[in-house]
Amino acid sequence: MNTEKMSLSDKIQNTVGPFATKVNNNIYLTSVRDAMLAYMPFTFIASIFLIIAFFPITQVTDFITMILGTENAFVWQSKLLYVNSATLAVGGLIVVISMAKSLADKLETNVLQCIITAVVSFLLLTPLDNIEGVDFLNITKISAQSMFLSILVGMFSTIIYKKIEERGIKIKLPESVPPAVAGPFESVIPSFIVVTTFFIIRLIIELLLKSDALTLINGTLGKPLTYLGGSIGGLVVVKIFEQFLWFFGLHGGSIIQAVMDPIHQVLEDQNKVASLAGAIPPNIISMSFRNHFASIGVVGAVIAILIVAKSRQYKEVGKISSVPYMFNIGEPALFGIPLMLNFLYFIPFIFSNAISTIVAYFVFAMGLVPLPTGLAQIPWTTPPIISGYFVTGSIRGSLLQIALIAITTVVWIPFVRMADKELYKDEKEIDSTGSDATVQEAEGIR
Fold first, then answer.
1. 99 bridge partner residues
2. What average pLDDT does range 233-257 have in this prediction?
3. What is the CA 177 to chain-centroid distance, rounded?
4. Residue 380, SS3?
5. Which range (32-36, 219-223, 400-404, 430-434) has the least confidence?
6. Biggest alpha carbon–alpha carbon distance for the chain
7. Of the candidates 37, 44, 195, 269, which lies 20 to 30 Å from 51 by C-alpha distance?
8. Which DSSP string corresponds to 129-183?
C-alpha cells in the first residue's frame, strides 16, 4: 500500500514539481514577489500610526485628545496621517522602485539608472489633474490603485533598458574616463529610449483610445484580476492549490504571493480609503482577510495534537510547534508531524484553510463581524485573536478567529487521533521489547 502511495506521490511530484520550479525560478514573477515584500514594511509602519489615530476603543481616542489638550481628535489625527501620505498613499511609487530594483539585480544591469528610468516612465504614464488651467499630480493616482501599472512599468522599463544595453547602444567614452563619470553618460541612450517608448505609449492611449494608462490598465487587467482574487471561489481555489503545493514539498506561499499579493493589496487599500472617509469597507476579501482569517486551518493540527496526543512523539511535536504557531509559523509542525507527503493528513491539510476561508467569508457577508478596515495592515505573523481585533476594530474579529480555530481543530482531531494511535502502539511495542531485553540481560548476568 505504501509503495502505491509513494508511486502516486512520485507521479504528482513529477507533474507539479517542474511547473512549480519554473514559477519559483521565473525572474519576473520572483521580482514581483520581492517588490511586494519590499513594500510590506511600509504598510506596517503606516498601520501603527493609523491604529493610534483611529483606535477601535473610543475612550482611548478621547483620552489622547484630553492629554494633548486639542480642540478635538481630528487635530492630532490629521498629523498622524502624514505618515500614511508618505507610505500607503504612494504605494504605486514605492512598488515601481522596488520592482525595477529587484529585476535589475536579477538581470545584472545598472540598478540605479533602471530605478530612476522606471520612476520617470511611471510618472510619465500617470495622468495629471487640472484645476483652473493648472496641472498637478493627484497623490491618489500613485497610491495602491496604480499597483498594476507600477509593476508593469517597473518590469518593462528595466527589460527594455537591459536589451538596449546588451546591444551596446550607448555613448562610448575613452577608457581613461573614470567609471563614476562614464556610467551616467553610458546610460543616457538606454534611458532616453525607454522614456521615449513610454512617451509614445502615452500619446497612443490619449489620442487613439481617449483614455490614460492608469484607467486602461485597471480596466483591462486590474478589474478581471481583482474580481478573480476578490471572489470567494477564486480564493478557495488559491488556498487549496497553495496547500497542495506545500503537501508535495513545494513552497506554496512564495508561488502564490507573486500573483495574489498585488491583487489583495489593492483591495486592502480600497478598504482603507473607505474607512478613512467614514464609509463601510467595500471588500470582504483583502490582504488582511487572506492573512488573518483564510490561513488559520493548519493551526487546528497543533491544537488537535495538544488535545488528543498520547504518543511521546506527538506530545513533543505539540510542545515545539505551539509557540511558533502562535505567530503563524508552521514549519515545526510541517516537518515534525510530518504533514508533507503524509497521505493520512491529505484531506485536512489540503482543505482546512479552504474551510476557514468559506466560514469567515459568510460570517463577514452576513454582517456578524465588521469587515477588515484596511487601517491595521499588520504582519501575517501577528498572533490570532490579537490580529482579529486590530484588523476589524472589533472584539468580534477575535471571536471569529477563535471559532475558526475550533472548527478546524474538530476537522483535524479524527486524523490526528488515528496517527497518534499508531505511534502510541509502536512506542508501547518498542518499550515492551526494550523491557524484555533488559530482563533477559539481567537473568544472563545472574
1. none
2. 83
3. 46
4. coil
5. 430-434
6. 108
7. 37
8. EEETTEEE--GGGGSGGGHHHHHHHHHHHHHHHHHHHHTT-S----TTS-HHHHH
Q: What is the DSSP letter of 296?
A: -
CB 271 within 8 A of CB 374: yes
In eight-state DSSP terms, residue 173 is -
End-to-end CA distance of the chain: 46
Is residue 250's pLDDT more than 80? no
Report the C-alpha gap between 325 and 137 in whole angstroms: 45
77 and 54 in contact (C-beta within 8 Å)? yes
- Residue type at position 373: T
- With bands split at pLDDT 50, 70 and 90, how would you rate the model's confidence at 4? very low
Average pLDDT score over residue span 239-255: 80
Angle at 328 between CA 347 and CA 241, to 5 degrees: 40
What are the residue boundaries of the structural domains of the chain, listed by start?
A: 256-446
C-alpha cell read off for 256: 502564490
Q: Is the peptide bond before 174 cis (omega within 30 degrees of 0)?
A: no
What digits encode the pLDDT tens for the residues 164-198? 999 988 887 777 777 777 777 888 999 999 999 99
Taking the C-alpha atoms of residue 446 and residue 433, their distance in angstroms, rounded to an integer, is 20
Integer Cα distance of 261 and 132 in angstroms? 39
Separation between Cα atoms, residue 413 and residue 405, nearest integer Å: 12
Q: Is residue 144 within 8 Å of 92, Cβ to Cβ?
A: yes
Percent of the chain with pLDDT over 70: 91
Asked whether the beta carbons of 332 and 363 are under 8 A apart, the reply is no
Side-chain half-sphere exposure of 439, counting CA atoms within 13 A: 6
Q: Using one digit for the tens of pLDDT, what is the confidence trace for 345-395? A: 999 999 999 999 999 999 999 999 999 999 988 888 888 999 999 999 999
**What pLDDT score was predicted for residue 444?**
55
